[in-house]
Give the backbone structure.
Amino acid sequence: MNGSRVAFAVDQRAVPNVRFPPLEDIWVTLAIRDVIASLMLKKTPPNIDALNILDDKLRWLSAWTIHHANHVRESADGLKVGGHQASCASMTAIMAALYFHALGPNDRVAVKPHAGPVLHAIHYLLGSQNLEQLRNFRGFGGAQSYPSRTKDQIPVDFSTGSVGLGVAITAFASLVQDYLTTHDKLAEEDRGRFVALIGDAELDEGNIYECLIEGYKHDIRNLWWIVDYNRQSLDATSADRMFERFDEIFASCGWRTVELRYGKRLAAALAKVPAVEDWLDALPNADFAALSFQGGAAWRARIDADLGKKAAPFLNAHDDIALDGLMNNLGGHCMESLVEAFDAAQDDVPTLFVAWTIKGFGLPFAGHKDNHSGLMNPTQAHAMRDAMGIAEGEEWEPFAGIGANVRPAVEALVEQSRIRRDKRGRSFGQVAIPAIAAPTGAEQSTQAAFGKIMLDLSRGGGELADRIVTTSPDVTVSTNLGAWVNQRGLFKRREIPDVFAATKIASAQKWTATNHGQHIELGIAESNLFLMLAALGLSGDLFGQRLFPVGTLYDPFIARGLDSLNYACYQDARFLLVATPSGITLGPEGGAHQSINPPLIALGQPGLRHYEPAFADELAAMMEEAFRLIDDSAGESTYLRLSTRSVCQVERADNAWKAGALAGGYWLREPAPGAEAAIVAMGALMPEALVAWEELSADLPGLGLLAVTSPNLLHRSWIGAQAARWSGKRELSHVECLLSRLAPGAGLVTLCDAAPASLSWLGGVIGQRVAPLGVDRFGQTGTLADLYAAYRLDGAAIIQAVAEILAPFRL
């Protein structure tokens, strides 16, 4: 079918009241479909000249944004504002090729931290960033130093700043996309690619390689990792030949690797003189950087000194200015090479692009080893402005300096960009959270109760259960998730049968892996766990589908993945973290598996609520609240610190305790008004506290027993109430209300299987005295009786502490 025939058919179909035979209807429909399909499949030839102009424009706008913050904007303190002009300059061609050619509306990008100003410049051209934000770069309320999902007004897919983590989360986000697709929660047309723009120094970060291994296990796809290989870090020039190692490492994990070393012009010139190409291939990184800074004359002198007559044809073909430009024509600055490489990688194979660049490309300190935090001075910035044809006073004009003959093409390219320009509103309130019943049993541990609750949720079904995704770093069984996985299965894109079940070998674990399973099993790498939770916890924001991630690990190993946990919370990803077992209560395991300071970590971690239940009914209430907080616009993530110790459950007269427990604490044994002492206990040590309370209450009938369920919620409410009082609001915090039941000078004996400082701060709330009991030394193996006695956590220690703290009243 030719074009005219199709056009005629369409015209005929447009005539009113004309009926065509069914066959003609089919013919026309197929013709239109074929035309549309061919147009969609046929890529519009890129306008390389326009892309090059946008490359220059991004370099200028990012450099001027940083310059303005440091040299133009009024400074109250005279301190350097900072920014990374050199790191931006090495990325502008890559980002121009991506954002104005390669990226589609569903693609998501983690931009390397130091290229944040380039991202802001792109959105300024697109109209989704305003001038006020750029003028206030790195100022309060302005464009952030590094791309931030929650603090920037432009659409930022992944926050970056803690190097390496923004790279790895793209792999886990890709896995989440596959999960949603196979669970019929994401249509094929809404899928996209995940792109990480990487500073080459980031490739020293170990979390990237932990992620790479995990990605290989899960057959991760739809990834582009693009390395800005400028071979200069903050302190030094990168080790020579590292790109070859990267190629080997990534290829062994199933990645395609694409090296963009020389641009088109340089590659063509080198092909004519192989001796120069061999020489340049072997040139050390530091030498290349120094020669780039020195310019064409230095290149000429060095090549002539090293090669002599062999290089004459190459050198004679270029004067110094041309030679300088030619030697800077690396693959990461060659628009044609970048576009070709991106267009050639349109399948779903994960691809590592190593794009050779020059740090500070196009700036006066290009290649200088000290350029990482270098800033152009006003003279240099004005010279760059003039060279670009930008008139003074028009520095912020989006298309200033672009000639009238090419400006329409550049504007058209910007307008045709397919990336998202708006910042999506966050999606909450999708799922009704049902009441969660506490498991029955006169004696049980919080860890075992957690497993029972998860099993009950699985069996009960419903929207919440179907949207729960569990994950664990090879401790699924030992953190009591095994029964859940038996019910819901492992998630794998390709089915993996349970060989033991197939061969009728008895096993408690029946773990068939399918693409509809709801548990993602990870290797022993806690950083991967928290990045997986971060990606799952952003599912509502990235894909419009809320998931309820539940991750389990051993409590002491939170510290191992702490940077990744902080990164997840910084993005306000929502999840439930279950850390168990905890404390020296894990007696026989010894000090390597016994935790001390995680409650202190939680005390200072924004976006994460810590609960430490003693009883199963507390745990059930906390899990219900945690799921609610995941899907609440004012919510946060939750950390449950659980124990393997089986304790007798308390009888409840009613549910009056529940509100206090969810707020951080409640009186398990009410004090008398104005009581002079109270025991304050948390978690697994509640049995010792109860026994001590029973023994002491005969002599101290007004003695209270305060069950603390969340030190960080109590502390948060206390600090919040103080801040509110400074603004004229006079309301007591929850912890103030609790402690005000006691005498102003009452004594508090605090008890926790953690660092004593987790609770000792309570004395500062209204000025009461504290005797803090807790763990301030590494644990060891032993029975609970032996350990509690050795670490002063038993009933005898509590009684002695109460006696000592009451001594001033007795004198």
